[in-house]
User: What shape does this take?
Amino acid sequence: MNLNEPLSEEELDALNQFLLDSDLEDNMDVAMLDGYLTALVSAPDTHLPSEWQPWVWDLEKGEASPQFKSLAEARRIQSLIFRHMNTIAATLAYVPEEYEPLLYENPNDGQPVTILDEWCMGYVKGLELMGDEWQPLMEDHPEWFETIMLYGTKAGWEKLEALDLTLAQHEERASALPGEVRKIYGYWRGGELPGMGVE
Assistant: This one.
């Protein structure tokens, strides 16, 4: 088992299907998981799977866990999650210009709309899990977290309703999100990543 091998489209679909078909009521979907894992690999400190994985299955309490059909299925799903996490980390570390968040898209009758909510909710869950260790960065560069907090929190949704963004303004935020993620990741690692300066 190579935990550094990126997921194929089929494997990513299989992981998403497992999450969608889960018997759990409050687990993450694959977009939310992508945001969550991105926050974890971007954090200043490393946390054990036993600390963060329960929240994948139970967003509210971190207590429930899925009923796997077999030990083989459990190992396969765990492998897919860790491989995806490692891919995010390696991309941000070595080829940050290639990093893209995993976002859904609403066809919207020919005018596609990028869906940010699930991904941002996952990232916010990662921020909440880490607690105070994020505060120095959030105080230094709150602008890097503006879109994440707008689309990933209840307070942000209320603010979004008041802002009444146009589709163009919404898509502008979606387009800027990868760069903001790269800056956050780089902050804890000397402020600069290969091929990217952090301002």
